[in-house]
Design brief:
This protein is mainly beta. It has one domain: Porin. The chain contains one helix and 13 strands, in the order H-E-E-E-E-E-E-E-E-E-E-E-E-E.
Amino acid sequence: MKKLMAMMMLCVPCYAGPTLTILGGGNFPASNIDVGGRSVPAGDPGLAGGAQIMFPVSESVSAGFDYLYNDFGEKSDPAFFQVTPGVPAAGIDYHLHSQVFLAGLRLSPPIGEEKARLFFFGGLGFHRTSATGDATLQPGYFWTDTGTSETRQIVNDSSVNFAAAAGLGIEREITDLVSIGIEGRYQFMKSAKFQTVPVSTVIPLTTTIEGNVSDVALLARVSYRFGSPR
């Protein structure tokens, strides 16, 4: 019996406990959206941050959950409203930000004798993306209901849809429990759709802002592994 128990113990892989990772860096929009019939960039480069928890499945494979917040830089479309084709009456300043929730796998085979590892991350889940935007009249135009020309909010809406991500990075152990690294990640966020609101009671014009809000994120990683190898 003692020999059997010893053999069973030898067969148990020496995996550590779960790993918690803090993510932070920047994002770079990689798609256009439709704003009032015009194809414009989803935003300017912005910030990204989040967290990941992974549970070991084997020596090189772990599975878990990943959350990333993406704050796209504010963007402008100077011809959002047009009185006649080619004659803009008002522009829009819009700002998108998304939360991406994923269930994912991480593959991290060791490389050589060093404590550094290349890794691949892939995940599937959903995103919740919000949009805010303000309409600003061009010089010489006024709102028909008041005769004034102040900036007015035209969109404040959110949308939920499918998301997927694939990332590649490298990580190096600093101690037995702490490691740091970098990761490049492509995030596909399926079409988000936002409804505008009327900005004038006299002309109750509404439209939609929609499109994929995919991006590339460059992230720094700080990880803590709970427990220790057996």
